[in-house]
Each structure stands twice: as structure tokens, then as C-alpha cells.
């Protein structure tokens, strides 16, 4: 299985079928920052609305279905799994029978307690195993929604930008925002050059991971016959080899850069010039409207 073609995560896919490609890189960065920053101190309604918005953008982006459906499926499963773990780990395991005072004296408190819990499972015993009691509170449900939606919005929003934007365009957009910091002497060009190298390093990591999987499949290792301990040792060896190959790639890249006496970094030449058509103007105008509407709605409905 070729991971580079089946799981296009964090790498640019060439083509011209999506309207996301013609949005200005500076507007894309602002939109991604909205998805990254606005969930902070936001309620579950706003977080769920961001997830729905990302799903609509993904389905209506006109990107080929084979590019994003696998990554979207696994990301959704991962988010739901972490959300469920957060719900069950933070739920109240105490029952109402644990109060030492007379329930008649605490009738108001008990009524509020029942309203606060969404799901209550009494204690049950199956043979010699006791289950429960288990109470699912609203606080636990909100925590599960926050964790799952945060993971989904962070990964999916960044992935959509990387799928439809060249690394050079991203670096140029960031340099446009960080240009005032050059006046105080900060090495913005060097930082952006390091970011460009990191973005181009993502496919290399995926390639090394694919090579490890291919080497295991070619050798036809039978983990059932090895047992748990030996299988774990083989897994550690594979992880060690994976990081050794990555560090070797890093060392080779560093040596190639050090071999050059002087590196002139000009972020202005990273700008990709698109033809100024009516479609580009309309799409970028709608993107600006989306940014304004998102900020306005966050102020109205995004509070806790």
C-alpha cells in the first residue's frame, strides 16, 4: 500500500479542481487561525459548529474523493475515540446512595443532582463481578465534546490548507504578516526557511514509515509465533530503525546546507502569481466575508 498516494496528509496535491486553491494564502492562514484560536474558551455549540463547517468545506471543496476520504475517516474515528475516553474517564462514579444524610433533608439538592446527570446506571452484579453505579454528567459530556472537536478542527483545518496550498505560498503569507518584526532585528527569514524545510520534510517521514511497513510485509513476520515479548522487541526495533532513518535524512540535509558558504533567503520570490480572473475575485471576497461572519458569530454565540 502506497501511503503517499492513499493518505495525503500534510502534503500538497497538484491539481486545479478545487476552489480552495485560488484563495489567497494570507486569507487561508487567517481562516486556519480562526479554527485554531476560536475554540479556546468556547462552548460546545461553537465547537460543534466548527466541525460541521469543516465537513461542509471538505465535501464542497471539489477535491477528488480519493484524496481526503481515508484521512477524514481515520481522523473522525480518532476524535470519537478520544472523546469517548474523556467522557468515561471524567464521569462521576459515585451513586446517590453514597450520601450519609437523610435524603428527605436534601430533596432540593437531589433534584438538581438528577437534572445534572444525563445518564444514570445503577449498580448491577453479574456472577461475582459488580458493575456500577455509573453517572454520566453534563460536565463529562462537555469535556468529551471539547477534546474530540478540538482534535478534529486542528488537524483537519491544517490538513486542508496543506493539501491545497504550496509550501512556498504558506511561507510567503507568513512573511507578509511577520514583516513588521524585521524592523526590530528578528531573523524572520531564517525562521521561515526552517519552516519551509519542515513542511517539505513531511513526505520524507511518510516515505520512511512506508518503507518500514514494506520491509515488515516482505519478511512475513508471524507475530503469533513470536509471542508477546518478542513481538514487542520487534516493534521497538522497527521504531528505532524508523527514527534512525529520519535522523539520517536530517543529517544529510544539514550537511548539504553547511556545504554552502552563504544562503540568501528571499521570501518575496516564493509568491505564486495567479491570473486575476473574476472567479478569483469572487472566491477571495467570499473568504473575507466568511472571516468577518465567523468573528461576529464567535462573539455572539461562542462564549461558554
Automatic annotation (TrEMBL):
CDD domains: EcfT (cd16914)
Domain of life: Bacteria
GO cellular component: plasma membrane
Membrane topology listed for this record: Multi-pass membrane protein
Main subcellular location of this protein, as a coarse class: membrane
Subcellular location: Membrane
Bilayer-spanning residue ranges: 25-42, 72-96, 279-297
Keywords linked to the UniProt accession: Membrane, Transmembrane, Transmembrane helix
Keyword Membrane among UniProt keywords: yes
The name this protein goes by in its record: Transmembrane component of energizing module of ECF transporters in Cyanobacteria
Origin species: Prochlorococcus marinus str. MIT 9302
Amino acid at each position: 500500500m502506497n501511503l503517499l498516494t492513499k493518505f495525503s496528509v500534510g502534503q500538497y496535491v497538484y491539481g486545479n479542481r478545487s476552489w480552495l486553491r485560488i484563495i489567497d494564502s494570507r486569507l487561508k492562514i487567517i481562516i486556519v487561525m480562526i479554527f485554531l484560536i476560536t475554540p479556546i474558551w468556547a462552548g460546545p455549540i461553537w465547537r460543534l459548529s466548527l466541525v460541521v463547517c469543516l465537513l461542509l468545506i471538505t465535501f464542497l471543496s471539489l477535491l477528488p474523493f480519493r484524496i481526503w476520504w481515508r484521512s477524514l475517516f481515520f481522523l473522525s474515528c480518532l476524535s470519537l475515540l478520544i472523546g469517548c475516553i474523556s467522557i468515561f474517564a471524567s464521569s462521576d462514579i459515585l451513586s446517590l446512595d453514597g450520601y450519609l444524610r437523610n435524603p428527605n433533608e436534601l430533596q432540593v439538592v437531589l433534584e438538581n443532582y438528577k437534572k445534572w446527570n444525563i445518564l444514570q446506571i445503577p449498580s448491577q452484579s453479574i456472577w461475582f463481578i459488580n458493575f456500577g453505579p455509573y453517572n454520566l454528567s453534563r460536565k463529562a459530556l462537555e469535556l468529551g465534546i471539547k477534546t474530540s472537536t478540538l482534535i478534529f478542527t486542528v488537524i483537519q483545518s491544517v490538513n486542508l490548507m496543506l493539501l491545497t496550498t504550496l509550501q512556498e505560498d504558506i511561507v510567503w503569507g507568513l512573511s507578509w504578516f511577520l514583516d513588521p518584526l524585521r524592523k526590530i532585528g528578528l531573523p524572520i527569514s531564517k525562521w521561515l526557511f526552517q519552516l519551509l524545510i519542515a513542511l517539505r520534510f513531511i513526505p520524507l517521514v511518510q516515505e520512511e514509515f512506508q518503507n518500514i511497513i514494506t520491509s515488515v510485509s516482505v519478511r512475513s513476520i508471524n507475530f503469533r509465533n513470536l509471542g508477546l515479548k518478542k513481538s514487542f522487541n520487534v516493534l521497538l526495533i522497527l521504531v528505532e530503525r524508523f527514527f534512525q532513518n529520519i535522523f539520517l535524512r536530517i543529517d544529510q540535509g544539514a550537511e548539504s546546507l553547511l556545504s554552502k558558504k552563504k544562503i540568501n533567503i528571499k521570501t518575496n520570490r516564493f509568491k505564486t502569481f495567479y491570473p486575476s480572473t473574476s472567479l478569483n475575485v469572487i472566491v477571495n471576497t467570499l473568504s473575507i466575508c466568511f472571516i468577518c461572519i465567523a468573528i461576529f458569530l464567535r462573539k455572539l454565540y461562542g462564549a461558554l
